[in-house]
Amino acid sequence: MTSQARFRRNLATMTGSITGSLAGILAPRREIGARSQAFDLLFAGALTFFLGLIGFAQAGFGGILGLGMLAPLVWRRSRPEPVFFVVSAVAVLQWLAGVELQPGNVGLLVALYAISVYGEVRYSRIALGIGGLGVLMATSRYWSGSDWRQQITMMVALGALVFGVWATGERRRTRGLYVAQLEERAIQAERDRDRESKLAVSNERTRIAREIHDVVAHGLSIMIVQADGGLYAADASPEQAKKALATIGDTGRASLTEMRKMLGLLKQDAQQELDPDQPRPQPGISSLPELIDNVRDAGLTVDYEVTGTPRDLPALLGLTAYRIVQEGLTNTLKHAGPGARTCVHLDFGREMLTVMVNDDGRGAGVAPSSDPGHGLVGMRQRASISGGTVNAGPKAGGGYEVIAKLPYNLPNGGGIQ
């Protein structure tokens, strides 16, 4: 490559770089509304008209330079950087031409304020440096014949004026950024509230679905067992068939009542917020004997044992223990087979309640399903919410066992095993 070709390439690269930089500077920095544009036009027009007239009255050429420092202020907010550099260039031309200070020099301060408020931070710092250099240039030209004390006084006064204008603009910029940050935080907080509300609705739907599953599955299991038993005993023992039908009716009515109570929670949530002392109609430990009697009436042999010193439990913990026992008995009715014996054991320990539901049926021999169903998942979720754990699976000697450990006091986190 010849030296001329390299020169052309370097010149093209330099030109492209300069063009890109100028394009970045000249590009509009912010969008402003029609009202703001009208105000900027009126403001710059007023300064140009009145101060321009004064400048023309003092000196013709100086008046033209004054117009050059005032007219660009129309774009001081949309293009603060090029406006400041154009006004500064006109001021330097005024200094080189030896023209005295004009009223249009006010445009320098207005442009400096605009770039410190609306311009980029790096250009704002450059503008402050240019303003300081302008103070030195003005002092050396316009007060060169004065006493050194007067020169220092004017230098300090002009420097304080330039820095004060720049600092005021920086303060407004900082305040504007702070307000914008607060607005963004408010918008984000509103988004978070909407997201939390949607999550709360989803969790509530899941809770209701789990509750309905527990009630319907347990009630239907008992009703199916009683219906099969009543059909079998209809001819040989009409009394047993009548008893089975009565149990089916009682179980259906009880399940329907409980399901209505749970669905009624949707309407009671608002009233619960107004009256937090109103109790929720949910079963607990005290309802277990009635549940076990219903299962016994369905033909399942159930032993109920309580060890330790019983205590009053929180409503959530009592409901969790009740649902775990209910689901365990329901699974026994479904999978244990005829003649199975079930044991429900509550152990009130020092720090936690242990709930055990086990049977000696054939549940262990049933092939596991690829879908764990809602029952076991529901038990684990309930225990996790209460800070406890649930283990469920076949026993070594046959049968199936569910063991739940529920702490009385909710720790920092619960586990699911």
TrEMBL record:
Class of the enzyme per the UniProt entry, highest EC level: transferase
Per its UniProt entry, which superkingdom is the organism in? Answer: Bacteria
Provide the catalytic activity annotation: ATP + protein L-histidine = ADP + protein N-phospho-L-histidine
Q: Has the keyword tRNA processing been applied to this entry?
A: no
Provide the GO MF annotations for this entry.
kinase activity
Where does the Histidine kinase/HSP90-like ATPase domain start and stop, copy by copy?
Answer: 321-408
Keywords from UniProt, A to Z, are: ATP-binding, Kinase, Membrane, Nucleotide-binding, Phosphoprotein, Transferase, Transmembrane, Transmembrane helix, Two-component regulatory system
Q: What is its EC number?
A: 2.7.13.3
Note the SUPFAM superfamilies from the entry: ATPase domain of HSP90 chaperone/DNA topoisomerase II/histidine kinase
Q: Which residues form the DUF7134 domain?
A: 35-175
Give every Signal transduction histidine kinase subgroup 3 dimerisation and phosphoacceptor domain span.
204-269
Q: Which residues cross the membrane?
A: 47-70, 82-97, 126-144, 150-168
* The protein's name: histidine kinase
Q: Which organism is it from?
A: Kribbella koreensis
